[in-house]
Amino acid sequence: MDNGTPPGNAFTTLLARAAEPDGVDATALRYHDTSVSYRDLAERAARAGAGLARLGVQPENRVLFLMKDSPAMVAAWLGTLHIGAVAVAYNIRASAAEIRHAVTDSRCRALVVDADYLPLVREALDGLEYMPALVSDAGESMRRTRESAVISKLNTPTGKRWSIATCSTMFMASAAPVP
Hints:
Elements: H1 10-14, E1 27-31, E2 34-37, H2 38-54, E3 62-66, H3 71-82, E4 86-89, H4 96-106, E5 110-113, H5 118-125, E6 133-136, H6 139-143, E7 153-155, E8 161-166, H7 167-171
Helix pairs in contact: 2-3, 4-5
């Protein structure tokens, strides 16, 4: 698979089947009633990696994941590996204090979070000097609530700004850092 990913990268190894003529349409993932082909997974992962790169994630940067198992999580995880960054899974049952410690200890460049965990993450990150880019799948649900301002930027009570992009935007390869 010649996609600019260094040889030996886990992205290349795990998605090698997508490069085989008979493998592109083979099922890579089954999730509930959905099947995802190797081709689709490889494309989603490449878009996720490109979106993370546009948010400033570089090789060897850490990307912390607070997500339930899903095709979006797998694609974002592989996209992180694709750009040479380090994917760090974190316990979805963690407390705000534990998440805060993980963020400060890892100095993650981005935090990829399911929408369900955004209130907990807000609590964890409030007042931190160091603020990673925040990526979430909350797009539509957040647009329909009073939290719509969070989509572009959020000023916390301490005055720190958060950057946020949505996974759906990131997978469409149009995410950009918030000024």
